[in-house]
Specification:
- About 65% of the residues lie in helices and about 10% in strands.
- It is built from 14 helices and seven strands.
- A hairpin with a 2-residue loop joins strand 4 and strand 5.
- Its main location: membrane.
Length: about 450
């Protein structure tokens, strides 16, 4: 509700009471001096005196009207804020109370009867329109300024002689000013000056309302953008947490293999069942322990590198995706000589990069009903390229980051970071016949596998 974002209903009702009391006090302002000054205008025959008197009449009527309209305006919103079921009072209160006030007995100010004419009708209408246009704006200061400009502008219509036949300016003060203008034959002066001031104030009210509405819309857009950014941040955190959990589970699984070997052979040696093979078993245990040590170093230290064949790296990748049902959709395309080529990498991190590409390809296939993922290995000079292709919809043309398949983009960010840290190049592109290709290119190690 609007009142929740703006003033508390009790404070709005208190402000409404203040303005209504101010309106009551304004009725007590004596108009005798002003009427006497207007009566002397035919004697001086001065157009300046006529315009001065007209301005004072509009100022007095404007102050009274602004206090009245603003008081009932705030009263309606304060009553509507007391309970959701009373929301209709925000427009019904000013629409009903303001006209009723004009027909009160002439007891509030020297017996002057208020006239509910065209300016009053326009003022009530402006209250309702302003209430609707600014329903999502909680700043009552700006609303009050806009309302005051509209109400004050309509008061100038009362002193325009040509509008008298339309119900404007039938009050005692306004009629006196127009009578004096008729005696001086200066009715055209009041028509033009009153119309000009009315137009200026009315346009100022329109511009103020437009600025409020535009500013409110921008604030709403900014709030929506912040909300989306917060949701995306939470999604990224959840995705990162889930991805970290999956990676931890896979790393534990990888560490468990050499640990199982160590424990199994150690148990054989301790039980005495490995007579004659203890040395061979011990060698296997040491190799498994060194493998675990290398894996732990790769996990803890990003810059740790070791020589490994492309075939062993690919085998390590397939080991990590083996628990997943989509493993059967991944096909390997590589020549045996290429698989024997060596690279110097952080095996754990590089394999995770390739797994991320395979996982993105799986998501892409789910989007378009694709069924096959291809992991190809090729050799070009001293560079080795591992490429993953899918049968999905391809990368979106307007993507700024991520794969675009309802993902946060953390997978591709990780791939890019790992490849760059290895001095390699990561690239992605859509295929002409459909699908997408993501590839990472690494430098080939100068040492052959047989030299290790």
């Amino acid at each position: 509700m609007e009142t929740v974002k703006g003033l508390h209903p009790a404070r709005q009702l208190a402000a409404a009471l203040f303005f209504l009391l101010l309106w009551t006090a304004a009725q007590q302002i004596s108009t005798a001096p002003l009427l006497a000054a207007i009566a002397r205008i035919p004697e001086t025959m001065d157009s300046g005196d006529l315009l001065t008197a007209a301005s004072f009449v509009v100022l007095l009527n404007g102050l009274r009207a602004i206090a009245l309209y603003l008081g009932w305006f705030l009263a309606g919103n304060g009553l509507a804020g007391l309970h959701p079921s009373l929301s209709f009072l925000s427009w019904l209160t000013p629409a009903a109370a303001i006209p009723m006030t004009y027909f009160l007995p002439p007891v509030l100010g020297e017996g002057i009867q208020l006239h509910f004419g065209i300016p009053a009708v326009l003022s009530v209408t402006s209250v309702l329109v302003l209430r609707y246009l600014t329903r999502n704006i909680s700043d009552w200061a700006y609303k009050s300024i806009a309302l005051a400009l509209f109400v004050f502008s309509f008061q100038w219509l009362d002193i325009i002689p040509s509008l008298t036949v339309w119900g404007a300016g039938w009050g005692e003060l306004s009629s006196s000013v127009k009578t004096a203008a008729g005696i001086l034959e200066r009715e055209g002066l009041l028509n033009w000056s009153g119309g000009a001031v009315f137009a200026g104030l009315f346009l100022s009210g329109v511009l103020t309302t437009e600025l409020m509405v535009t500013y409110s819309a921008r604030l709403a857009d900014m709030a929506l953008l912040r909300d989306r950014e917060n949701k995306m941040a939470r999604l990224r955190e959840e995705s990162l947490s889930n991805r970290s959990l999956v990676e931890m589970q896979q790393l534990v699984h990888d560490l468990k293999r050499p640990l199982t070997t160590i424990l199994g052979l150690g148990d054989v040696i301790v039980s005495g069942r490995g007579e004659g093979n203890a040395a061979r078993y011990g060698t296997v245990i040491c190799e498994a322990a060194r493998s675990m040590e290398e894996m732990v170093s790769e996990i803890l230290h990003e810059d740790f590198r070791r020589q490994v064949s492309i075939g062993d790296l690919v085998e390590y990748v397939f080991t990590q995706i083996s628990p997943f049902p989509w493993r059967e959709t991944v096909l390997l395309e590589a020549d045996r000589p290429v698989l024997r080529e060596m690279v110097k990498v952080n095996v754990v991190r590089m394999s995770r990069a390739v797994v991320n590409l395979l996982d993105n390809a799986r998501k892409a296939n789910l989007q378009a009903g694709g069924g096959k993922i291809t992991l190809s290995v090729s050799l070009e000079g001293d560079r080795v390229t591992l490429a993953v292709t899918d049968e999905g919809p391809g990368f979106p043309q307007d993507r700024t980051s991520g794969s675009g398949w309802n993902s946060t983009g953390l997978g591709l960010q990780y791939v890019t970071m790992v490849v760059h840290n290895h001095g390699g190049v990561f690239s992605s592109a859509n295929l002409p016949g459909g699908g997408a290709r993501a590839a990472l290119t690494l430098g080939r190690s100068v040492k052959g596998k047989d030299e290790l």
